Amino acid sequence: MESLSETYPPQITLAIYQKWNKNTHGTTRGEEKFINYFKNKNFVYRTFNREDLIYDGVIECIENFQYIKTTHICVVDYKLSPVIMYRFKDRDFCIKHNGIEKFQKLWRKFHYKIMPRYKNIYNLQYRRIYGKFRLLRY
User: What is the DSSP string of 72-89?
Assistant: First the structure.
């Protein structure tokens, strides 16, 4: 029996990807029923694991994709971000990992909303006089 899908070990890798397009990526015989499925998926062009990020060739590859993206030669929208990859019908697809964006949002909320309360001069003076917790005396 033919295996339709294969999963990679769950790890986060850096990848260059774009939305799957029938005209650009094509289909083979027997895949007509999967076209609607493929349209919603991100097709992976190139991945970089931890060992690849050490070498200088990665920077040149990323610069090349940035050059293609900024010139008028190609109107394809490439994206570069951390992803979780999987394989379906001998094609590599990915799911964007939003962990970094979530951490940035959490950090901004902490830094701009919570920390100013602790840095407020009145709160600093109050804590200097009474300590962290004010003791109630009867």
Answer: SS-----EEEEEEEEEET
